[in-house]
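Many introductory courses stop at the sequence. We go one step further.
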Amino acid sequence: MSSTAPDIFAHLQASHGNMSVAQLLVWANFIEASVEALRRAEAAVRAASSAYGERNGWWRKSQKKNASKVKVRIPNEEAITDAIGRELEGIRMEASAGCPLYDMNVVFDTERPRKKQVSIGPNALTTDIRVYTYLNPNIDLRFESKIFFDECDLDKEYLSDRGLLRFADQESPYTDRIIGGMIGYSLTKTRSIWESAVEGRLPSVGCASAVTRTQLSCEADATVVCDVARPDPQLPKVTVLHLVMEFETDPSSRP
């Protein structure tokens, strides 16, 4: 683990100043390692897109017209998440001493039950991607994912009570930790366009504040980040990272 504080550390310190420097530094380095692994998994899924596209369940049953009025097949959100989880498992298995994933004993899971909720079994609410370590029970990073196809997906899904607002859910919070993440699976516009759209819309979300960008070492461009307030003022706010990954429809819907 690096002893140098990543840029995300400054945001965490401003938002969670009641925590010790040592605790925040652990979180900052864990975020860096997690996002780097997620980007590697994204690249692996894209490289194997033909093989994944042939698997039962990859595509939604119904097609949809894109901006060019062409009917296209759209990947299932759950299928993309499953593929990312499989690639993350391979990346973790290949890690050796000196790699943060190995040194921090990082574990990746998909579709895991939320820690606090009233439902159980088939009615249990899940988190899409969970990243954690057995070495520190306080480190538990959970990501919610949504498809970006139409413009309306940003407000109706990503920023809704089925997306970002799940972090502010009083009864079944998406996480009980101070950090979480959102991932938009872009099937149309570029990653940078969707990131700017997310950044532009976040100030209109009532529970979101401190909207800014932070530089992660594994990212060429700064990452959008915000804080989400919980209904219970006794609980700390959640700092949420916003990532966008690019995948394809069939045929492609990119310009």
